[in-house]
Amino acid sequence: MDTFFEFFSFSDPNVVAVVIGSVLLTASSAVVGTFTFLRKKALVGDAVAHSVLPGICLAFILSGSKNPLFLIIGAFVTGWISLVLIDNITTKSKIKEDSAIAIVLSVFFGIGILMLTHIQHSGNASQTGLDSFLFGKAAALVGSDLVTFGIVAVILLVTVGLFFKELKLIAFDASYARALGLPVKAIDLLLTTLTVLAVVTGIQAVGVILMAAMLITPAAAARFWTNNVKTMTMIAATMGAVSGLTGAYVSYVAPAMPTGPWIVMIISAVALLSFFIAPKRGIVSRAVSQRKLQYQIMDENLLKALFHLGEEDDDTYKGRTAEEIVEKRHFPKSRLMSSLKRLRREGFLTKKGSQWAFTEAGKLKGQRVVKLHRLWELYLSKYVKIAADHVHEDAETIEHIITPEIEAELERMLEYPEMDPHEERIPY
Amino acid sequence: MDAFYIITVSTLIAISCGILGCFLILRKMAMVGDAISHAVLPGIVLAYFITGTRDSVWMIVGAGMLGIFTTFLIEFFHKKARLQTDAAIGVTFTWLFALGIILISVFAGQVDLDQDCVLYGEIAYVPIDLWITESGQNYGPRALHISYIVLILIILFVRIGFKQLYLTTFDPAFAATVGISVSLWNYLLMGAVSMTTVASFDSVGAILVVALLVAPPATAYLLTDKFRNMLIITCVIAVVISFFGYYLAVYLDGSIAGAIVSVAGVLFILAFLFSPNNGIVFKRFMQKREAARMSRGALEKV
Predict the structure, then answer these.
(1) Minimal CB count within 10 Å: which of A246, A341, B135, B187?
(2) Mind listing the pLDDT tens digit for each residue in A96-150?
(3) pLDDT digits over A333-372, tens only?
(4) CA A176 to CA A168: how far, in whole Å?
């Protein structure tokens, strides 16, 4: 616990540097990731991340030093080449995009590993620490490295800010952007460059192997909380920053631990939580609204069946047993009973002995569903010219969805008709 | 003799991976294969931690289950949370892989596994790790036995399920109408991929195995249009890359697995450029000839 306060009091200047660095790096890659995510190129980031390894090794072999500027340039070059290759393989041969990504990713990484092991076996003393690019080491972010990586991260954020509108447009509708006269190719190129840069900066904190997560996961999680791109970018950046901060802390407390996996664990936990509990788009909320709709449809069908029974013997308010209802229209027993009980609780039905009968409200509700069904059938046969014996199925679905506005519109268009196409009276 | 063992083991592994890879790339599931190979890592570490050995049946079974679980998770996020497929894949495998790496660090003392092994395997140790019975009988390298058993299992699997795999790959709708469960065969294939990944883990590591799954089949795919030929060419490529990869690694004093993958990449680029039917150089040549013929034809008409 002591280390916790020690770390978060930020009294150690090293800690401040590490925190600023890792938060900047993770947040900026999350921001760029938002656009690659929206452009449905999330896995391309994975390929770039793996492909920068040979670049880093090559830069080291050529320069003989671990100067971050050289490493960044090397990483940038091979990262770029990998994207060009993926693009060329996909467009100029029958290889599909997924295979192209997998090949480029693994082969570049293989070449990188070959170089890295070659460097390690060569006994060059200054190579130690080169492998921290594999899994990341936020704690190593000090001094001049921090300045270099920090500058790149700031450039990234500023560029995204400047071209926000253009990036947003090509992410959603590239052909519309082209029609507007925007240079789509150039903006795509910009996004590609930003992706490579984001990877190049992020690897210091997360490492090449898991860098893909920093591009994909915050964006995927943020997508669940909003439909607005600007908000989404902010949320993704915040989530990225939080995970970066945690990673820096882990790196501080347990120097033997690789930082990258911890950052990824945190951001993944945030994402999983978002997938489940986010309002509207989350799995739980989806399941709840689906269940609600199921109940609504079941209840309305039940009221409709009761109304039909009432029509048959001209006694709408007569009590019916569950058996009678099932005879009119088949419902699974358990669902029927729970629906009956629910409707009684809501005041649409009353129960006497084993007999269920409409209340005033229940009759009106059942009547409305029947009316909508028949109005829709009439509309389909009159305006869409569908044969009368083909309209039932469609009406069966739409009757639960029609809003009062559409209802009024239908009534107006059809001029309050008496009969539906099956010569059945439309109740008002 | 060492060289012979290493080349044989890597050939056997490359063939197993290649056969499955042929199905993967035609199903457009190369990245799912990539995801699985990453995601089985926590399974491997846990099985290792529990059983204390590297080559137990439990490890294969555990990792197989985890591979199927990964496939399920990807589908689940895609269908239930409506997450786009690429993001579903990306989120799932990075998360499981990170978990695996953390587990390795946590159990660092208890488990004889390190991050290097995860990255590029330890195929150089194949000749050292011998299978010696209690009576002292020496049966040669352990990895050799594992790799040919896996290969036999994969061949049996593909042989027995060939019709189903073939149909669900090329025409899933038709397969479904004749009563073949598309999702069952999908899960079986993914289970096979996970088991092969685990078996190859010691030799090539979790990441480079992707190259063996995808690069040789993709190269073969560029060279032929017939599925049977694609399988055969994949096997030939497996032999070639293992042989040249080994000697490249010896020459450069680097990782053998890395070198094998590099050679596979070179072969792919060669096929991409010079394949008789699909290579871009050949295509350009044909285009030129066609253009010349057309312009001649146009002149004759005048």
Answers:
(1) B135
(2) 999 999 999 999 999 998 898 888 887 766 666 777 777 777 666 666 777 877 8
(3) 888 999 999 999 998 998 888 888 889 889 889 999 999 9
(4) 12
**Inter-chain contact A98–B30, Cβ cutoff 8 Å?**
yes
Range of A261's domain?
20-279
CB proximity under 8 Å: A 192-231 to B: 209-210, 212-213, 215-217, 219-220, 223-224
Give tens-digit pLDDT for A228-264. Answer: 999 999 999 999 999 988 888 887 787 777 778 888 9
Any idea where the domains of chain B sit in the sequence? 2-301
Q: Mean pLDDT throughout A38-51?
A: 88
| Nearest Cα residue in chain A from B252 | A118
Q: How far apart are CA A353 and CA A221, in angstroms?
A: 53
Do A365 and A337 fall within a single domain?
yes
| CA torsion through residues A295, A298, A301, A305, sign | negative
What predicted TM-score, i.e. pTM, was given to this entire model?
0.84
**CATH class for the domain made up of B2-301:** mainly alpha
3-state secondary structure of A423: coil
DSSP state letter for B128: T
Q: Which residue has the tokens 């846990």?
A: B46
Mean pLDDT (chain A) is: 87
A237/A314 same-domain check: no
C-alpha of B74 from chain center: 19
Does A232 lie in the same domain as A323? no
Domain boundary among A255, A279, A303: A279
Angle B107-B113-B117 (CA atoms, 0-180°, nearest 5)?
Answer: 145
Buried residues in B81-104 as b, exposed as e (16+ CB within 10 A): bebbbbbbbbbbbbbbbbbbbbbb
- For the record, the structure tokens of A124 come out as 């060059």
Q: Is B206 left (phi over 0), alpha (psi -120 to 50) or beta?
A: alpha
Q: What is the interface pTM, i.e. ipTM, of the complex?
A: 0.90
> Is it the case that residue A57 has pLDDT exceeding 70?
yes
CA distance B265 to A108: 8
Among candidates A102, A116, A122 on the partner chain, residue whose Cβ is nearest the Cβ of B30: A102
Does A93 contact chain B (CB < 8 Å)? yes
Q: Residue A123 has what DSSP assignment?
A: T
Does B281 touch chain A if contact means CB atoms closer than 8 Å? no
DSSP state of A320: B
Cβ partners under 8 Å of residue A413, min gap 6? A379, A383
A195 and A182 together in one domain: yes
